[in-house]
Amino acid sequence: MELPQYLWLAAGSKSFLTKKRVKVLKGLDVTLYPDNDAYELWHEKAREYHYKIASMLLDKSEIPNYDLADYILDSK
Fold first, then answer.
1. Is 8 contained in some domain?
2. Alpha-carbon span 3 to 19, nearest angstrom
3. Which residue segment(s) compose the domain that 56 sits in?
4. Best label site of 1, 21, 25, 42, fewest CB within 10 Å?
5. pLDDT value at position 31?
6. 5 in a domain, yes or no?
7. What is the pLDDT along the chain (76 residues), one digit of tens a residue?
8. C-alpha 9, offset from chain centre
9. Burial degree of 31 (CB within 10 A; 0-12, 13-18, 19+)
10. Between the CA of residue 51 and those of 29, 35, 69, what are the distances in Å?
11. Going by C-beta distance under 8 Å and a sequence separation of 6 or more, which residues neighbour residue 16?
12. Is residue 19 part of a domain?
C-alpha cells in the first residue's frame, strides 16, 4: 500500500525521538505512530513537542514490537 500524500519518517529506535532530532520538523503537522511498546514514552514526547499521537497500534499490544508497517501489511 502506497500513501504518497504522507511523508513517513522512522525514528530508528523508541529512544531516538529527541528534541535535537525533531527540530527539523518544526512547523510541520506531525503525528506519531509509536510501536505498541513505546506508546507511553512517546505520549510524553508528543505532549512536549506539541505533536499528535495515534493509539491504533495499542489494540495489538499482545504482539511484541508491533508497528505501523505491520499494521499496514495486515490491512492488505
1. no
2. 27
3. 29-74
4. 1
5. 93
6. no
7. 567 888 888 888 888 999 999 999 999 999 998 888 888 899 999 999 999 999 877 766 677 778 888 888 887 7
8. 9
9. exposed
10. 7, 16, 20
11. none
12. no
Which residue type sits at 32?
L
Q: Which residue carries 506531525 as its cell?
A: 30
Name the one residue in this structure whose C-alpha cell is 518544526: 26
User: What is the pTM assigned to this prediction?
Assistant: 0.80
- Three-class SS string for the chain? CCCCCCCCCCCCCHHHCCHHHHHHHCCCCCEECCCHHHHHHHHHHHHHHCCEECCHHHHHCCCCCCCHHHHHHHCC
Residue type, 16: F
Tell me if 6 is assigned to some domain.
no
